[in-house]
Amino acid sequence: MPPAAEPEIPNKLYFKIGEVARIIGVEPYVLRYWESEFQGVRPGKTRSNHRLYRRRDIETLLEIRRLLHAERYTIEGARQRLKGAAKAPPDTVASAPPRREKAYREALAGVRHELEAIARLLG
What we know:
Layout lengths: L16 H8 L3 H10 L6 E2 L5 E2 L2 H16 L4 H9 L14 H25 L1
Antiparallel strand pairs: 1-2
Helix pairs in contact: 3-4
């Protein structure tokens, strides 16, 4: 299945929570929950206590949604991944969520077994 296209972020300085929820594709209560779980998402607030998100916040929220929904990370795993995003390249087996690591190892063992069988046939 091809990855979903990144949503278009309008060229504005600030966004209200309803606008951000539509862009990200989640309900506003999910955004409020993610604010409590991820330090990288801290929208400003108006005098009337309305949240105002910046473009940087929306980009972080899109990454969180990708990690949680597409990559199937847990909240803790996504939090660690965001902290270490600059440290490790994203396309490595070591950066896979722990529950996938076993599946990767099993798949690699199967490929190795098949290659050894092919080598025996040729050899």
